[in-house]
């Protein structure tokens, strides 16, 4: 059998330097010539299995230390080069391995430096939010991914696009949807554009929700999706056809910096348009007020999902015909924030949504149940918070369900206008929360995950508090 060849010159050199040996001394101990060792260290000759065993026996080194590829270090370097600042310089996987192999210490230093840079960037962001909350303008900014730019742009403005809502209302009336939108939409797409909608099984669309085939003029929808999600996908495609001009007009108004950001924003606006078509503004507002913003009743009345009805609540800000200013936030099990929106812009300065005590985190232990809280911020602002889990696409046997959670909130002053105010009247205790641990100065918080950036840690050999991050 052919002998495996291992090129590990930089690792052999690192072992030799760590032992303060010359090439001559090491070559003598290994019973090879200094010139041959020199070629090995320059990766011009391989390490044979016999020589590998000799190295391990003579210098008592771990074979894995010599043989191991730079996979772990390459993973760290991949994280570095995935940063938007270096996106144009991203080497291929093989090049990353070569860097890790040839200069492991330098590669490790690069990874450490990058993580320190990210930590400082996070602290600067926290400080910028703190200054903004106190009324100080700051120009602190960093390189952003297109998705981050779109999210920040949409979150800073009211989640209401008047031209799209008006176009959706006109289109809905023209369809004469009556009790259901799905059949009229399919008929319109076939009659006006020659597009036939088909639902495909999982094996035909294993990784896609929706796919439009321009050659056969067919719109394929995955059977993984619930009926509500299928309707949204069809409504989204129809919106791009029926009121493309209104969507493009709103897109231009966002003043995004690049083509990728514009593409993402166009998708988000089409999603907004789909909700506007499924839940026409005037009718949805009237029903929301009549039902006192009961999300369960609203979703049944309009044939939509809980998540769709919740997001639609954040858009009711038409001048002269507005509803309560709701905001929403969606997270996954790990606490990653997937989506944020608010009728008057997500209230970052007062409600950051990063507090571990929020009821949105508790919903994962009580799936499909609605949790209601009153939350009190350090500045005295109080919010009504409603949270519930959401199930993702249908899964097959042995596939893990994708479950997220959504939080819907508004100023507590409007609690009595909602059915959820009953829970407040029923004695729900006020929950003291903060914007995020790094910006919160509440003493003795059992849920604190990080120290505040505004205070030094209160380390004391004689006294310890309830939190590992007690501060002075």
Structure description:
The protein has 472 residues and is an alpha+beta fold. Among the domains are: 9-68, 434 Repressor (Amino-terminal Domain); 145-278, Arc Repressor Mutant, subunit A (Orthogonal Bundle), CATH 1.10.10.2910. The protein is built from 19 helices and eleven strands. It has helices spanning 9-18, 23-30, 34-41, 49-59, 63-67, 71-81, 93-102, 104-133, 146-155, 162-175, 182-193, 227-242, 244-253, 259-278, 281-290, 295-302, 306-313, 359-362, 421-425; strands at 196-200, 210-213, 218-222, 317-318, 321-322, 327-331, 337-342, 371-376, 382-391, 403-411, 430-432. A six-stranded mixed sheet has the order 7-6-10-9-8-11. Helix 6 packs across helix 7, helix 7 (93-102) packs across helix 8 and helix 9 (146-155) crosses helix 14. The longest helix has 30 residues, at 104-133. The radius of gyration is 29 Å and the shape is globular.
Concise structural overview:
This protein has 472 residues and is an alpha+beta fold. 44% of the residues lie in helices and 12% in strands.
Task: Please write out the topology.
Layout: H1 9-18, H2 23-30, H3 34-41, H4 49-59, H5 63-67, H6 71-81, H7 93-102, H8 104-133, H9 146-155, H10 162-175, H11 182-193, E1 196-200, E2 210-213, E3 218-222, H12 227-242, H13 244-253, H14 259-278, H15 281-290, H16 295-302, H17 306-313, E4 317-318, E5 321-322, E6 327-331, E7 337-342, H18 359-362, E8 371-376, E9 382-391, E10 403-411, H19 421-425, E11 430-432
Parallel strand pairs: 1-3, 8-11
Antiparallel strand pairs: 2-3, 4-5, 6-7, 6-10, 8-9, 9-10
Helix pairs in contact: 2-3, 6-7, 6-8, 7-8, 9-14, 10-14, 11-12, 12-14, 13-14, 16-17
């Amino acid at each position: 059998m052919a002998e495996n060849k291992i090129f590990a010159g930089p690792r052999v050199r690192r072992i030799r330097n760590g032992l303060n040996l010359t090439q001559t001394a090491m070559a003598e101990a290994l019973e090879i010539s200094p010139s041959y060792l020199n070629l090995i260290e320059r990766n011009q000759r391989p390490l044979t299995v016999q020589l590998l065993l000799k190295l391990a026996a003579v210098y008592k080194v771990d074979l894995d230390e010599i043989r191991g590829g730079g996979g772990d270090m390459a993973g760290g370097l991949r994280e570095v080069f995935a940063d938007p600042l270096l996106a144009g310089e991203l080497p291929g996987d093989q090049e990353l391995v070569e860097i890790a192999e040839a200069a492991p210490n330098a590669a490790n230093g690069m990874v450490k430096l990058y993580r320190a840079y990210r930590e400082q960037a996070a602290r600067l962001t926290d400080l910028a939010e703190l200054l903004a909350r106190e009324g100080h303008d700051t120009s602190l900014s960093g390189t952003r991914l297109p998705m981050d730019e779109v999210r920040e742009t949409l979150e800073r403005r009211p989640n209401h696009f008047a031209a799209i809502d008006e176009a959706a209302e006109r289109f809905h009336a023209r369809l004469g949807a009556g009790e259901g939108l799905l059949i009229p939409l399919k008929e319109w797409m076939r009659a006006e554009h020659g597009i036939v909608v088909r639902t495909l099984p999982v094996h035909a669309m294993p990784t896609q929700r929706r796919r439009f085939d321009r050659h056969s003029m067919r719109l394929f929808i995955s059977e993984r999706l619930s009926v509500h999600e299928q309707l949204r996908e069809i409504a989204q495609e129809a919106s791009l056809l029926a009121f493309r001009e209104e969507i493009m007009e709103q897109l231009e108004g966002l003043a995004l910096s690049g083509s990728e950001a514009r593409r993402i924003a166009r998708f988000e606006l089409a999603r907004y348009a789909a909700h506007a078509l499924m839940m026409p503004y005037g009718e949805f507002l009237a029903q929301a007020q009549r039902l006192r913003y009961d999300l369960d009743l609203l979703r049944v009345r309009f044939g939509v999902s809980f998540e769709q009805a919740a997001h639609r609540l954040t858009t009711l800000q038409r001048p002269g015909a507005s509803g309560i200013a709701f905001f929403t936030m969606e997270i996954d099990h790990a606490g990653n924030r997937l989506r944020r929106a608010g009728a008057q812009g997500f209230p970052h300065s007062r409600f950051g949504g990063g507090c571990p005590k929020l009821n949105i985190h508790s919903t994962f232990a009580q799936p499909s149940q609605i949790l209601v809280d009153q939350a009190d911020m350090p500045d005295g602002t109080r919010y009504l918070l409603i949270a519930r889990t959401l199930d993702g696409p249908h899964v097959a046997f042995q596939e893990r369900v994708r479950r997220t959670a959504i939080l819907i909130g508004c100023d507590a002053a409007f609690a009595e206008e909602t059915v959820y105010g009953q829970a407040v009247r029923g004695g729900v205790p006020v929950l003291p929360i903060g914007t995020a641990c790094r910006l919160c100065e509440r003493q003795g918080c059992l849920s604190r995950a990080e120290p505040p950036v505004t205070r030094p840690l209160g380390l004391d050999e004689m006294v310890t508090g309830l939190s590992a991050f007690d501060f002075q």
